[in-house]
Amino acid sequence: MEHQVDLYMQYLAVEKRVSDHTLDHYFSDLEQFIGFLLREGLEEFGRVTYLDVRTFMGRLSKTHEKKSIARKLSALRSLYEFLRREGWVEKNPAKEVRSPKLERKLPNFLYADAMEQLLGAPDTSTPLGLRDKALLEVLYASGVRVSELVALDVSHLDLSQGMALVFGKGAKERLVLLGSQAVKALQHYLAHGRPSLWNTAGGGAGQALFLNKNGTRLSDRSVRRILDKYVVLCAGLQHISPHTLRHTFATHLLDNGADLRAIQELLGHSSLSSTQIYTHTAREHLERVYTQAHPRA
């Protein structure tokens, strides 16, 4: 079973181009499932039934949140589809198990003045400050995921058109818009920041757009640390993540009249239902404004 999981992980990494973050979670989830199977005396994936998967999920419900259980079930369904296509199993027992119903949390976002404060925080007199300024501007201007951001190469940019080519979930390509301020910040970084960082590693970073202090490609975790640093410098800001800026991008577009379908395309959502959650955020904002401003609210 371990060998089959290894092949499946290779398939996800190479053919599906799944992010390292997702790969780590899936591997951990599947290792946990294998441990359960071995304790139950099941040494082959083909011997597993719907009831076995259901029992596994039932035990998880005592110690895990619904969101975590849903992800583990998704990992099992995906694994079994791979095994079925490869001819190792005849059917997918995880497909028959219902996923727990999840409560959809409204996404956190920053108001325009807080976003401006964050964008103005980096010290652009240093190479790292120029990088951080460009990085924050790109996150807010394009709404890209952090995994898409760190995977950007210089060759993916078309600054004359104000666009970038990103590779999203499932290796899907899409063009994102950058806006004039992000383009300006990138031009300054490429001219005065990146060359200094690139020389640190003797050019070992190749085409990677955003580099760390050692001259190699920036990681997802590093972007989170960069954000944490600027949150401390900005008065009144709570903890935010790179995904907060993605939510902010979508919410500000919707607040200013953008069409939901257009936002779906810009975010790279395969389903409109994933984008519709922002309508709730916008509605809550309107209700707050109304309550505060209307004399008879």
UniProtKB/TrEMBL annotation:
Keyword Cell division applies: yes
Question: Where's the Tyr recombinase domain?
Answer: 105-291
Q: Domain named Core-binding (CB): which ranges?
A: 1-84
Its GO CC terms?
cytoplasm
Q: Which SUPFAM superfamilies match?
A: DNA breaking-rejoining enzymes
Q: Which GO molecular function entries does the Swiss-Prot or TrEMBL record give?
A: DNA binding; tyrosine-based site-specific recombinase activity
One of this protein's GO BP terms?
A: DNA transposition
* Subcellular compartments: Cytoplasm
Q: What positions constitute the catalytic site?
A: R145, K169, H243, R246, H269, Y278
Kindly give the Pfam families that the UniProt entry links to this protein. Answer: Phage_int_SAM_1, Phage_integrase
Q: Which InterPro entries match?
A: CB, DNA_brk_join_enz, Integrase-like_cat_sf, Integrase_catalytic, Integrase_recombinase_N, Integrase_SAM-like_N, Recomb_XerC, Tyrosine_recombinase_XerC/XerD
Q: Which UniProt keywords apply?
A: Cell cycle, Cell division, Chromosome partition, Cytoplasm, DNA integration, DNA recombination, DNA-binding
Query: Which purpose does this protein serve, as stated in its record?
Result: Site-specific tyrosine recombinase, which acts by catalyzing the cutting and rejoining of the recombining DNA molecules. The XerC-XerD complex is essential to convert dimers of the bacterial chromosome into monomers to permit their segregation at cell division. It also contributes to the segregational stability of plasmids.
Name the PANTHER family for this protein: PHAGE INTEGRASE-RELATED, TYROSINE RECOMBINASE XERC
Q: HAMAP family given for it?
A: Recomb_XerC_XerD
The UniProt subunit note reads as follows: Forms a cyclic heterotetrameric complex composed of two molecules of XerC and two molecules of XerD.
Family according to the record:
Belongs to the 'phage' integrase family. XerC subfamily.
What's the protein called, per UniProt?
Answer: Tyrosine recombinase XerC
**Origin organism of this chain?**
Tumebacillus flagellatus
Protein's gene: xerC
